[in-house]
Amino acid sequence: MAHFTKATSVKDWLNQRLAVDTLERVLMSEYWIPKNINFLWAMGMVLAITFALLLVSGIFLLMYYQPSVDLAFDSVNYTIMRDVDFGWLWRHVHGVAASVVFLIIYIHMFTGIYYGSYKKGREMIWISGMLLFVAFSAEAFSGYMLPWGQMSYWAGMVITNLFSGGSLHADGLVEWIRGDYVPAQAFLSRFFMLHVLLIPLAILGLIGLHFGALRIPHVNNQDGEELDFDAEAKKYLAGDKAGSKVIRFANDFISKDMMVVGVYLVFFFYLVFFQYDFAMDPVNFDPADGLKTPAHIYPEWYFLWSYEILRPFSVDVGLIAFAFAQVIFVLLPFLDRSPNAIPASRRGLFSVWFWAMLIDMIVLTAMGKVPPVEPFGTIGFYAAIIFIGLWISLPIITMLEKKA
Amino acid sequence: MKNKEPLILVVVVFFSLLTYYLVEPFAHSTMHPHIESEGFAYNDLPAISKTGDAANGKELVMGAAACIGCHSLSVADVTGPDPVSAAAAYGVNPPDLSNAGVVYDEKFLSALIKNPAHALKVEHKFDENKGQMHPMVAFYGAGGDIDQEVADIVAYLKSIAISQEELTPVIAYENACGRCHAVHYERWTQIGTKPMFKAKQDDLTFDVKVLDYQDSLTKYMGKLPPDLSIYIRSRGAHYIETFMENPQNYLKGTAMPRVGVSAETAEKVIEYLEDSGDAKRHERESIGKNVMIFIVIFAIFAILWKKEVWKELH
Known about the structure:
The structure holds two protein chains of two kinds. Chain A is mainly alpha-helical. Helix content of chain A is 64%, strand content 1%.
């Protein structure tokens, strides 16, 4: 057992028991971040803040939400929106944050792809990040079921139907997932549990893993430069702050993060109060009705690209393409065969690949929402083919890439 | 080292806005055709040519035109059957005419009196040649100039109605929409506002009456017209306004009649639906402004802090 002495101060008392000084040093003042970064490096903090907003608003909503097929709709739209003081505010914050969090996730992801931040020891950062993406997707989907509106019900119907596996006709699996033949009370109860307990727990654990995965390989920088963090840190501590290529996590890095967060929150709260419709689909303000299929069923915008990879094909081919799209991003560190961990702009063909992928995913997103009439059906079909083609070509074009 | 941040910001904002444009305004324009309002002008109906005489109109309403055979007229102490029996007889409770003169458009009222199915745009449902009579019997005239008589009736209805200023959102909704559409967030049922009963039995008795009424209404309309509690969020003001103006534009063949309200009444109906389905809109706007001011100040301090910390790092 450690030797404890009479504490000289509260801090000393805590230090003996929790080593707060060491923690402060390891996690903040001597956690070294490259200086050569731009505002895209703040997306992690923006995501953390948005997740905190989701968590806090969710806790408030949970106090009045009723997970029952008879009461859910009115508990959201009457009790929370009209009866409870500021219930509308928590709901709008929650709904808008759930949508905006995906915008930031996509920016964060494409930043990682552009700067090669999934290579050379940073593979686990990428993989844990993609697991977080999966967990956030499940969280978003399960949350979308809870108001029990028309879109909740029919999106629940369509997505759970996917598990029948097309020609496999695994209808038993679909019924097992729903706990009924159609989405009903058992379905709502279990998605409620997933949304408020199991998936948030998984997300918290994965965030820990994601942060932990950063520790050894360190944060990447704008030019993919390999830094000697120990030497640069010594330079910084010796007083050459301007000459050192690294900065402290706190307050140096955090101050820049908070600047970006400040600007982001102006944008976020503008959406919450004045432009929230994009995050709260009007169709979901009609109560769930199993006898009335809405004219257009579409997922929220952040799922549209993968929905459009499913839609233009026949059932079985579509499901295979869909499954491919769901897992392929996780494999990026292994499909990229180039030894270069530098920005895409300096990687020749990969630069073309990057912008083609970005634009193709935006096209897929747009085509995933509009009805599958011509010319949208054809555009969507070719965009889906291009998506698959881009991934197949990735190992080849990166193998051809010369060492920089 | 060149500062690339402005360029990066432009790229991020451009692709975000492009995606937004494609999944919101663009996608919705392909899914829902935009229908422009005619400003409740009812251009398909004949213009009014005669000036009515209210005194003569009163005699017609009370006598030869037989309006009060079916319609109550509470301002003149004319009562009709209770809503449940009325709906059992006609399918829907015929409206009390006390405020018809202010709720409905004058041109529409005149056309309605002469040919209800035509003015209401439900001729696909009520075709006299096939023996499908509209429950409201057309006025065939009382022996004089029919256009003059109709003008007199309308003049009388306008003379007894409350003024435009007195027309509240509640009165507008209850007259124009409330006999078919419940709004349970406002405790409105097709037979009136549901009182707060102390005894469970009274509560259930009221509910039974509502159910009886709804049964008749369902038979008459083909399906129970929807509860409009949060239609302002699910459809939006523009849709509801233009739908009221002419339901056939959106749902060809729907049993819902053209409502025939004036532009002012339509505005009041929208306000009622906002009070029901978007009750906290004023609070949202005022708090929104304050939060924006707060957060801009926060952002300014965050920027100043960063500049302070990074002074030594460059």
